[in-house]
Amino acid sequence: MMGANIAWGLMAPLSKSIMMFGAIGYLSLVSFRLAGAAIAFWVASLFVKREKVPPRDLFLIFIASLFAIVFNQGIYITGVSLTSPINASIVTTFLPIITMIISALYLKEPITFKKILGVVVGGAGAVLIIVSSTQQDALSTASNNNLKGILLVFLAQLSYAIYFVFFKKFVEKYSPITLMKWMFLFATITYLPFGQSEFMHIDYTIIPFSVYRDITFVVLGSTFFTYLMVPIGQKNLRPTVASMYNNLQPIVATIAAAIMGIDAFGLIKGMAIALVFIGVYIVNRSKARTD
C-alpha cells in the first residue's frame, strides 16, 4: 500500500506537467490510464498461470471495477470541476474515516480509541500539508467552493471505500493480475464513451518526448503498478489500515514538487509528514476483530 500510494503521489506533479502542455486534457489522460493499464495487465497475464473466472465472478468483478475505478475517478473529476482543488484534496483525506465506519458496520471491526486517534492524527497531517502548499490558491479560488462539488468528491471517496471493504474477501480468490485485467477491461469499456471525443481529437505529432515519458509513468507506474499492489494490500491488511496509506499521496506530491522546483519544503510540511506517519503507525497498532 505504501508503494502504491507513493506512485499515486508522484502522479500529481507529473499529470500537471502533462496537462500544462495543453494538448492532453484530464479526460484524455484518464483514458490513457485505463486503456493502457488494461493492455498491460492482459499482456502480463500471458506470463502467469491462467485462472478460470466463472460468469458470476465476472459480474462481481465488473461491479468492483465500477466502484474502484469508474465511479471513483469519474465522480472525482466532476467534483473537482465544481469546487476548488484545495477542498477536493482535503476531502480525499477522509477515505480512512469512511472506510473505518463501513468496516465497523459491515465487517464488525471495532472502532477503537487507537484507530480513531490514528485516523485523526494522520488526517490532520494530510490537511495541514495541503493547506500549507496552496495558501495562495485558496484566496483566488474561494469563490469556486461549491457544496455540490465537495459532495461529489466525498462520494468518490465513498465509492473507493466500498470497494475496499465489500470486496476484501472477494479479491482473495484470484491473483492481482487476473483480477485487474478484467477490472480494467470493464472500466475501459465503460469509460471510453465519455472520453473518446477528446481522446480522438489529440494531435499526437506535436507532443514532445517528455510528455510521452510522463504519460508512460502515469500508465505503468501510477496505474499498472499501483493496482497490482492494492489487491496484495487488501489481502494482508484490514480495510482501515490499508486506506490510511492514502494520506501519503499529498506528502509524496509535495516532496516531488519541491524537488522539481514547483513548491518549497519547510517546517510546517515537515510537521505534516510526521503527523501522517504517526497516524499510520497508530492505526497499524490498533486491534482487529480477531484480536
The geometry reads as: globular
Number of helices: 13
In terms of DSSP E residues, the strand content is under 5%
How do the helices and strands follow one another from N- to C-terminus?
HHHHHHHHHHHHH
Distance between the termini: 22 Å
How many independent structural domains?
1
Please give the share of residues in helix. Answer: over 70%
- Main β-sheet, in a few words? none
Strand segment count: 0
Low-confidence stretches: none
Rounded to the nearest angstrom, the radius of gyration is: 19 Å
Structural class: mainly alpha
Mean pLDDT: 79
Kindly describe this structure.
The chain is mostly helical. It has one domain (2-284). Helix content is 77%, strand content 0%.
Secondary-structure topology with pairs:
Layout: H1 2-20, H2 26-44, H3 55-82, H4 85-92, H5 95-106, H6 113-133, H7 135-141, H8 147-166, H9 176-200, H10 209-236, H11 239-244, H12 248-259, H13 267-284
List key phrases describing it.
291 residues; mainly alpha; globular
TL;DR?
The protein is mainly alpha-helical. The protein is built from 13 helices and no strands. Helix 1 packs across helix 12 and helix 2 crosses helix 10.
